[in-house]
């Protein structure tokens, strides 16, 4: 009887552990890297198109696996885009302040840097 009770207790503990772990999102798929803003925008565009294509078809278990894998690359790209656009906002503010102070050298240098990065986002 004690061994049965111990087995039930152990089984319950294992079940609770498995359920708790199921709520976590393990990083079992890394996705395609986005090391630069240009690469992130390219990956974002390419993988969104792939996702759109999969979503247009029947959502079979295989399609769901493909969606799962595609979203990792899209998430990586979005993280890079978010980080880089935050920096872009700061550069634009430097251009803005330079224009207020008639600082042509800073406006030109930082403005050119801003335009170069911004053009990566707008084609």
Description:
With 123 residues, this protein is mainly α. It has one domain (29-121). 80% of the residues lie in helices and 0% in strands. The longest helix has 40 residues, at 61-100. The radius of gyration is 24 Å and the shape is elongated. It starts with a helix and ends with a helix.
Q: What percent strand?
A: under 5%
Q: Could you give the distance between the termini?
A: 73 Å
Counting DSSP H or I runs of 4 or more residues, the number of helices is 4
Radius of gyration over all CA atoms, rounded = 24 Å
Largest beta-sheet characterization: none
Q: What's the number of extended β-strand segments?
A: 0
Query: Which sequence of SSEs, written as H and E, runs from N to C?
Result: HHHH
Helix content: over 70%
> Uncertain runs with pLDDT below 50, 5 residues or more?
4-23
Q: How many distinct domains?
A: 1
Report the principal-axis shape. elongated
Structural class: mainly alpha
**Mean pLDDT rating:** 84
Question: Would you summarize the structure shown here?
Answer:
The protein is mostly helical.
List the helices and strands and how they pair.
Blueprint: H1 2-22, H2 37-56, H3 61-100, H4 104-121
Task: Supply the key terms.
mainly alpha, 4 helices, 123 residues
């Amino acid at each position: 009887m004690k061994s049965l009770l111990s087995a039930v207790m152990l089984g319950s503990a294992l079940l609770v552990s498995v359920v708790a772990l199921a709520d976590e999102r393990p990083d079992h798929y890394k996705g395609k890297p986005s090391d630069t803003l240009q690469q992130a925008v390219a990956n974002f565009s390419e993988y969104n198109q792939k996702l759109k294509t999969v979503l247009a078809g029947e959502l079979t278990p295989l399609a769901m696996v493909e969606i799962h894998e595609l979203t990792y690359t899209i998430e990586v790209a979005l993280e890079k885009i978010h980080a880089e656009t935050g920096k872009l906002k700061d550069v634009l503010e430097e251009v803005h302040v330079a224009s207020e102070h008639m600082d042509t050298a800073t406006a030109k240098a930082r403005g050119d840097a801003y335009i170069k990065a911004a053009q990566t986002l707008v084609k």
